[in-house]
Amino acid sequence: MNRSIKLFLLLVCFVTCKNISAQDLKADFTGFVDTYHAVRSKSPYDFMSSRTRFRGELKMLKGNSYFFTSFNAIHNSILESQTGIELREAFFEYSDKSWDFKAGRQIVTWGVADGMRITNIITAMDMTEFLAQDYDDIMMPVNAIKLRWIKPKMNFEIIYVPIPSFSIIPYEAENPWSVFPTNGKPVFDINMDNKPELELANSEVGARFSFFLPGADFSVSALHTWNKMPVFSRSYSSNDDTVFVQAFYYRLNMIGFDFSIPKGQFVFRGEAAYFIGEAHELDDEIINTEPIKKNSLNWLIGIDWYPGNDWTITAQYSHKLIPDYIDILLEKENTILSTAGITKKLFRSTLSVSTFAYIDVSNGGFFDRSSIDYALSDEIHIMLGYDWFHGDKGMFGLYKNNSEYWFKAKYSF
After folding, report:
1. What is the distance of C-alpha 397 from the center of its chain?
2. pLDDT given at position 307
3. How many CA atoms lie within 13 A of 67 on its CB side?
């Protein structure tokens, strides 16, 4: 019996633990089933995604001890390699008045940005369908050990990741979200097998101070990590019909800061990260050369407005600067990315209408996800939406033909 089947049978047994209590042990099994289907909004009107998922979540609490695990059972009709059973999270936690300890497979989030990564770079990203997934599903768990000291106005945490994980980049020809052209010539020969060795020296470690003051929260952080997104080097065959692509991963150090200030109907947020030794790809015309390391500064400011009547309006502006810039870098000296979002709830909050857009100011492109979410009941939601890609350059220009209509239904228990 393979591991996936064993895991499935074990976790199915947990269903019987729902809402049980033995002495001071409390256990609860929850989760959801969702199905998602998307079709391209232009010819050939092919399916971009078609998947159904069962998510199970088991929580157990006894005294100061807490255990949580979740798993996905997925059937993906477009990407068969994504069909299967996966353990998403599995961690235990011990909490005391002045400290807590958490170990296992977990999702780690730092910072205050919404859908953008400034200081939140411990967790890798699953870009199998780019941004056409819920952001919570894009975030990948890591195997980590976290120790936190708790004070009334301050927290201090240390995190250790023995074996780093890296973002999933779609490059297969059958995936419509591939980052490399999949038809015509030249043909791409891609080598992604260049990850760090499983050695103690390649572990990750970070620390974060969080302060909670009257009218403002802020944090300072430091992290010794790796670039989660690979950077690439290119070379060509003798007759130029094949491009050989090599992925590289390098050490990266970060010093970060974030803050959040509520003021009446508004919340003002901000983050900044200084990356020491960040690897940068070279221009496509530069071949047989590894990426170059340069320090960079990445910062963001954001505002959330809650004007009442179930309206939520958000906006963010981020700016990345490479101070010691050279012209052979593929990335620009200044990269500007903004977001804007509007949500309105209607009919006693049973209907939610929303739009959220990423705007690539530097390259003149954008991605907007607009949706309608109707609650048939507390357990069942029906969603319809449209993903709109626009641009000729940059990250959104790559997917300018991938605009899609989508449908999603979800049952929670």
Report:
1. 20
2. 97
3. 9
Intervals of the chain under pLDDT 50: 1
Rounded CA-CA distance 371/14 in Å is 34
Check residue 10 and give its pLDDT.
55
- Other residues' Cβ atoms within 10 Å of the Cβ of residue 101: 13
Question: Residue 22: what pLDDT?
Answer: 58
255 touches 275 (CB < 8 A): no
Tell me whether strands 216-226 and 204-213 are parallel, antiparallel or unpaired. antiparallel
**Per residue in 139-157, pLDDT tens?**
999 999 999 999 999 999 9
Tell me what pLDDT residue 292 has: 93
Q: For residues 377 and 375, what is the distance between their CA atoms, to the nearest angstrom? A: 5
Q: How far is residue 175's CA from residue 53's CA, in Å, rounded to a whole number?
A: 19
What one-character DSSP code corresponds to residue 304?
E
CB-based contact 231:280 (threshold 8 Å)? yes
Residue type, 122: I
CA atoms within 13 A on the CB side of 49: 24
Give SS3 for 2.
coil
User: What local confidence, expressed as pLDDT, does residue 1 receive?
Assistant: 44
> Burial level of 324, CB count in 10 A (0-12/13-18/19+)?
exposed
| pLDDT for the residue numbered 23 | 66
